[in-house]
From TrEMBL:
It is found in: Mitochondrion inner membrane. InterPro entries: AAA+_ATPase (IPR003593), ABC1_TM_dom (IPR011527), ABC1_TM_sf (IPR036640), ABC_transporter-like_ATP-bd (IPR003439), ABC_transporter-like_CS (IPR017871), P-loop_NTPase (IPR027417), Type_1_exporter (IPR039421). This is ABC transporter B family member 28. It comes from Riccia sorocarpa. The keyword ATP-binding applies.
Length: 759
């Protein structure tokens, strides 16, 4: 953005404005923070080619253009507007005019002006940011994770099954379509019109009836087999892609939204095959419709138009039904989602409900939702009945027409009676096949909408490249290791000795200082609010640094940056002088242990939770016990009926706060990382638990570079260095005595006990 803006000449800015909307892409927060309230336009909608400055009117968040149309902007006047070209930084970060045509594109951090900008607007260059941040978030094309190419590749991997499925479909449909012909002949033979032995005809019919289910089984099993494999791969890819997004992505999307991608949305894609392999749907319907129409025109070109009318009418009725019911279906689905949400929320907060005596209120809210669900269900019922009856009316009209036209022809000797019987048989085949086909098309629309939702969420998020690279490397190392193990036919002992692993980052971190150099930071979800403004801290290797400061001063934010959940907006963090951005995030994660105020345990056994400290290798029972002993957790674990196999419940809810904390410390001990971050780890505990946890922490801190956000005077006092934060800057730095001697912010904090609790 900085480079881009500085590249704009003032002469360009002075031209008149004719466009209706103006688009600003990139991180405009820096400019806003200059208090000029002016930003540089780097993109223009429609015909405009001017680059101007103007006052920010509305923030639009990320702007998404699909097929050249603005898709997601909440501003009504922008929704659906075409963007023919975009002036600004393109996907490669270069300045230019980019034609968009019907392409899809994502512009993150966009701002939109109101129509018309002030004529006397001036250009204010934004403050410089460091090199690595320049184009990071400017403009990115949407990357479709699920696309036709991927699905085709996955399906074609199963060539043999696909060939068997298609052949079975062909043969099964042939059987189905030959049935009405045989019925006609059978009828003709019975009344003596056809001179053919009945026995021979029955054998043929028997063969067709026997083979049709065989081909059906082959077709269904192969198709489902292929699709299950495709779905397994898609599910895996979606999960993996979500997992490697930057932490900011998880600030933007609710957990429910993300899990529904993996459940509801992927299931609608799955259903497009699984629900459409039966005889009355999908591929079979299509094959039957095509086959029937062909046969009908051969059998009787005069009667075939009647059937065509039938086909078009049935398709039309079902299509109208689907369209009209769509909003009712949506309302029905929404009611069900609300019922589930309400029930989920009620049960999750049952203690709060009970303590407020809120049962009656919850029941009445639930009743309202259930009634809404019932009403939309009734509406759907009526629409369904209308669809069914109209379809029948059309079929009966077509049958009547066949009886009249066909009967007249048979009576006049212009048509064989068996042919008319076959025709009647095909009437039903065609009706059901057509209905099935339209239903399948509706399913297809649902599946495409699901694909689009998945692509929109994961395709427009920001993959954490460093994490992805690290994982890729690990995968290839694992793979190489597995191949080696396999070829040696021996079991590897893994990295059993050092949990941190033998990575260069870990080795460096045992001796190197960690430094925050002039760090500025704003959360991506609130780019306008600079939380850290030029932080400089040196965490000396093997020493303890205590971070104190009033609430909201940015202590936890520093922890988040050290954990590399976010990257600094400006400035850098180094380890032994090396910018940490050089290290893969998975390597960095191995070098840093975090123990939070509210540690999260997984819904597994205590032993498995402790072993999670080293998820990349096998952990022995002895190691787990050793870590638990050092964390003061062994005794309480032993006293539980199932010891280390005791399940801890969702997020560790079956343990007390102090017990959870000690399991988390044991996990961190097992991890044995050289850098340790303690975020108010003992502040929510009673004095007995606090003592136990603190003793465990003292063991954990030994020899590690520790940053502790502490409320306890003893921890702060004994720290090698105390850093006092105030409104995103370092207000004071020094030892306890040095800071007391200064009689500044720290002394105030100690005296007012705002931050430090005296024991
Ligand atoms: N994920 C987030 N997205 C946007 N803003 C955030 C986020 N997390 C924290 N903030 C904001 O950043 C500022 C600093 O918060 P931070 O949690 O770092 O303060 P703190 O000093 O740790 O406070 P406390 O002692 O109360 O925990 C606050 O104004 C907060 O609202």
């Amino acid at each position: 953005m900085a480079l881009l803006s500085s590249a704009l000449s003032t002469s360009t800015l002075s031209r008149g404005l004719s466009e209706k909307f103006i688009l600003v892409a990139g991180n405009a927060s820096a400019i806003q923070n200059s208090h000029r309230q002016t930003v540089v336009v780097i993109g223009t909608l429609s015909r405009g080619r001017n680059l101007r400055t103007f006052q920010i009117q509305k923030k639009c968040g990320a702007l998404e253009f699909r097929s050249g149309k603005c898709w997601n902007c909440k501003l009504e006047n922008l929704r659906g507007k075409s963007l023919r070209s975009f002036s600004g930084a393109g996907p490669d970060g270069r300045l230019g005019q980019y034609p968009l045509g019907r392409k899809s594109l994502l512009i993150s951090g966009a701002y939109i002006s109101a129509p018309g900008a002030p004529a006397d607007a001036q250009y204010y260059p934004p403050p410089e940011t460091s090199d690595h941040n320049k184009f990071e978030e400017t403009i990115r094309p949407r990357e479709n994770l699920i696309n036709a190419g991927l699905i085709a590749r996955l399906v074609l991997e199963e060539k043999q099954s696909l060939a068997i499925a298609l052949l079975s479909l062909l043969l099964g449909t042939t059987c189905t379509l030959s049935m009405p012909i045989f019925s006609g002949r059978f009828f003709e033979t019975l009344i003596g019109v056809r001179k053919q032995p009945l026995y021979g005809l029955l054998v043929k019919l028997f063969t067709v009836y026997l083979m049709e289910p065989v081909f059906t089984v082959l077709f269904v099993t192969r198709m489902i087999g292929i699709w299950e494999k495709v779905m397994k791969e898609l599910r895996f890819q979606v999960f993996q892609r979500v997992l490697i997004q930057k932490v900011a992505f998880f600030d933007e999307h609710k957990v429910g939204e993300l899990t529904s991608l993996l459940s509801t949305d992927l299931n609608s894609i799955k259903d497009i095959v699984n629900e459409n392999v039966s005889r009355d749907r999908g591929f079979r319907s299509l094959a039957e419709v095509l086959g029937t129409v062909g046969i009908l025109f051969v059998l009787s070109p005069e009667l075939a138009p009647v059937m065509s009318f039938l086909m078009i009418s049935v398709a039309g009725i079902v299509a109208i039904y689907k369209r009209t019911t769509m909003p009712v279906f949506k309302a029905h689905g929404l009611s069900m989602a609300r019922i589930s949400d309400l029930a989920g929320e009620t049960f999750a907060a049952i203690r709060t409900v009970r303590s407020f005596g809120g049962e009656r209120r919850q029941i009445s809210m639930f009743q309202n939702q259930v009634v809404a669900y019932q009403e939309s269900g009734n509406k759907l019922g009526w629409l369904k009945a209308a669809n069914e009856s109209w379809t029948r009316v059309v079929v009966y009209v077509a049958l009547m027409a066949l009886y009249i036209l066909g009967g007249t022809k048979v009576k006049a000797g212009k048509m064989a009676i068996g042919r008319l019987v076959s025709f009647i048989g095909y009437t039903f085949t065609l009706t059901f096949a057509m209905q099935g086909l339209v239903n399948t098309l509706a399913d297809l629309r649902g599946a495409l909408a699901a694909v689009d939702r998945i692509n929109t969420v994961v395709g427009t998020g920001k993959v954490d490249e460093s994490l992805a690279r690290g994982l890729e490397l690990e995968n290839s190392e694992d793979h190489a290791k597995l191949v080696r193990e396999d070829s040696n036919n021996s079991v590897s002992d893994g990295a059993a000795t050092s949990s941190c692993g033998q990575t260069a980052v870990c080795e460096l971190a045992w001796t190197g200082d960690v430094t925050l150099e002039d760090v500025y930071f704003a959360y991506p979800s609130r780019p306008d609010a600079m939380v850290l403004r030029g932080i400089n801290i040196v965490l000396k290797a093997g020493t303890v640094t205590a971070l104190v400061g009033s609430s909201g001063s940015g202590k936890s934010t520093i922890v988040q940056l050290l954990s590399r959940f976010y990257e600094p907006t400006k400035g850098r963090i180094t380890l032994a002088g090396e910018d940490v951005r050089k290290f893969d995030k998975s390597d960095w994660a191995r070098a840093v242990s975090i123990v939070n105020q509210e540690p999260v345990l997984f819904a597994m056994s205590i032993g498995e939770n402790i072993a999670y400290g080293a998820p990349y290798r096998e952990v022995s029972k002895e190691e787990i016990i050793e870590a638990a002993k050092a964390a003061n957790a062994h005794d309480f674990i032993q006293s539980l009926p199932e010891g280390y196999d005791t399940l801890v419940g969702e997020r560790g809810s079956l343990l007390s706060g102090g017990q959870r904390q000690r399991v988390a410390i044991a996990r961190a001990l097992l991890k044995n990382a050289p850098i340790l971050i303690l975020d108010e780890a003992t502040s929510s505990l009673d004095s007995v638990s606090e003592r136990l946890v603190q003793d465990a922490l003292d063991i954990l801190m030994k020899g590690r570079t520790t940053l502790v956000i502490a409320h306890r005077l003893s921890t702060v006092q004994s720290a090698n260095q105390i850093v006092v934060c105030g409104h995103g800057v370092v207000a004071e730095k020094g030892t306890h005595l040095e800071l007391l001697a200064k009689k500044g912010t720290y002394t105030n904090l100690v005296q007012t006990q705002t931050v430090v609790t005296v024991e």
